[in-house]
Queue: 2 jobs
Job 1
Amino acid sequence: LSLKGSINANDISLRGTIDVPTQMLTIQTGNGMQLQFTKKNDDLVIVRLFGSVSTTKAGIKMSGPWVDKEFRPAVVQSIVGHFAGHETSFHIDIDTNGSITWWGPDIGKTPIATRGNGSYFIK
């Protein structure tokens, strides 16, 4: 991310370019849901939930890859999502060890499309 031009805030003025380091990671859980992580400046992580989820129950750790260490929160984070085209919501917990726990309705073998986003600080 690069910002150009002039920025003024209160008594602070900045001219020129601000470069913010950005790192990305996308994982797909064994249950089908995908998580796209964007880390900005080594302290903020933005998470986007997409894809479809199937075969899971509330309180169960989702199978598949866990979140890489560079993107893990310092404390457990809850990211809220919803089912596309439905009025039902859910959330996932991203633990400090990288595991992802599903907190939503029990889902059978038929996949349901998920959407959501959230952010957290890692420092």
Job 2
Amino acid sequence: MLAGHWEGDLIKGAGNRSAVGTLIDRSTLFLMLVKMDDSTAEAALRGYSAAFAPLDPELLKTLTYDQGKEMALHKELAKATGMRIYFCDPHSPWQRGICENTSGLLRQYLPKGADLSVLSQRQLDMIAIEMNNRPRKTLGWRTPAQVFIENCKKQGIEINPAVALGL
């Protein structure tokens, strides 16, 4: 599978008042984190649209999400990004296994019950950079950033490696 097929989720903070959106490319494990003021559909639409906007359209094929209310505006997101959006069956987290695994790894940085509203987008970007430069067994001990760059090249997509590596 080539890059461009994403899984998404929402990590909620203390009292469900703050949230961080997670977007993970299925084939490369490349991660983007999105600061959200709350867990509303409007916040998800704004945040995810902004996160996907700089990417080449060839990297925006599909997004698989759970049945969360934050995706109520999925038709608007599909229109803004050109992506096809799919939803998992209720109570079926294994249908987004990459996202679930990554959320577990992210808890090292974003513990359950933490107030996520105190984090800036830049701080979330730094966490994503660290995660994207962490060798992963499933990638043959390469990093998600390396594999993302390789897949972009295979697809003929120009990408600045410094951006993908967070430099």
